[in-house]
């Protein structure tokens, strides 16, 4: 009892020291608040005198209002959580009480059933033995009740220990994870700006830091003390219940034994009640602190879940955007490749048609300008002569020479008519394929514009300009076809006229001594950019041009039976102008084809760059996903390791509790033997050994009862079915009485 009083006094001293520290802290805060109040009064007086508003004060007040609002919201939420937790704990407590009552009733029923055969067997013996057997079951019942209550108390203490340690570990782990996420992704709410941080007083930061440290220390102390206080509380309750049961359950002999020590027991009971009330108050405070710790843990869990959800949402949005961008880009790339292939085929087709037209024009110019060489006989000679330059004519023009020239020109007129028909056929082929080419070009331009809109501003001037140029080429080709048809009709009428008219080529540009005319040189310059047509390299998709050339070559052979039918001289100017226009149209078509080729090359380069960029983006996203998976694996490994450590810790605690229960059982049996010995000697009327100490001082009689858990003090106990448990060790001062 003295030791317990000393312990209580020490605890009171510690509490007094803590209260003094709290008082000092409160006085410091009061001084700080007084200083702030004086400062605010000075500012208010200054503002009232000058009429100016202090901006720093307003900002500080606004910040305080924001903080107070946040704190009030948080306190309301915490209050709701605490109410829910309290209701849930009350329900659990009520359910546990019901279970405890049911278990006690079942235990009493079982004990009654076990005692019935014993009573039946003991009835056959004498009255003395019957009286003894009536008292023994009562002692056994008391011991069983004490064991049950002790077991329940230990179970409750173990549950409280588990809950507290679990809450502390969860709180520490959540704090570590929150610090980790804050270091990686920053704070959840936006931090204060530089001006607000500069305006915030330094004293507020120091106060918050000091308050945080005090709260952490208080939480640690409370978590340590709560286990000890709960264990002491349960033990005291068990002792009080034991004393009540002993006082009310035993017979008149026990009452006589305890009546001698009634006053001392009353004092000890009053002191124990006071101590129990004090312990209950401390337990209530500790429960409140544990509830606050649980609320903080829940807040940390909510912040952590919010961080994780935002991180997963960012990763999911990046993956969705990559998939959305990659699939249409691949489809557009495939469509662009197909369009580029079609355009390349059509460009080759146009190049071939331009070569055909240029070769026909060169052939027409040479046939119209030559005067000294006969007509070409075969197609091969015609193709070779398209690159040759005619020799200069003689300086003296005799009348016979002029007549011969006119005759040859009249002879070449049917060939020119056939060549014009061939050119008109080629123009028909071009116009027939013009619809498909224009549609493909428009599709290409549309796709090009659509792709450029995805990345940069498109050049809206190139697409319409090329379309207009191709449209102009087609219009001019149709006009040229009409003029060629008119030329063939005029040539047909000219062949039927008189041969004595003037020469048909009198109005054509003459060939001087310096060489051919400027138009012929222009045609040669244009033809030098293209190779002469080779029928072996013609594509299979153009049989009509091949047939047209074969018919033109067959018709171009000279026929001796034809009559010389000169045409009129008025048509020469129109032929020359038509030739010039055709040359200009072909030159423009050549330029437009070159522009289209450049655009196609640029488009290929852009598509290639886009494909490279998309591939790099996909690789980067795959790397990010692998990093996230690796981080998740590390977290799972850490959680599994923590779980193993907890299992190991709880297994050790369980072993220690089992050892303590066994030690208590042995000590209780020793106490039972001593009480039995004392009762036996008291019945026999023998003098009890008294050395000035109380006979209930178990520490003096049985030092093994209150020995340490690690000491080797486990006496052997022998169980007698009639007399109850007996010890194999003899107590000093006793003798064997039968």
TrEMBL record:
GO terms for biological process: insulin receptor signaling pathway; regulation of autophagy. GO terms for cellular component: extracellular space; membrane. Residues 116-142, 493-514, 713-738 are annotated as: Disordered. It is found in: Membrane. Residues 142-236, 268-357 form the SOGA coiled-coil domain. Its main location: membrane. Keywords: Coiled coil, Membrane, Phosphoprotein. Residues 9-43, 72-113, 212-310, 579-613 form a coiled coil. PANTHER family: GIRDIN, PROTEIN SOGA1. This is Protein SOGA1. It comes from Carlito syrichta. The gene is SOGA1.
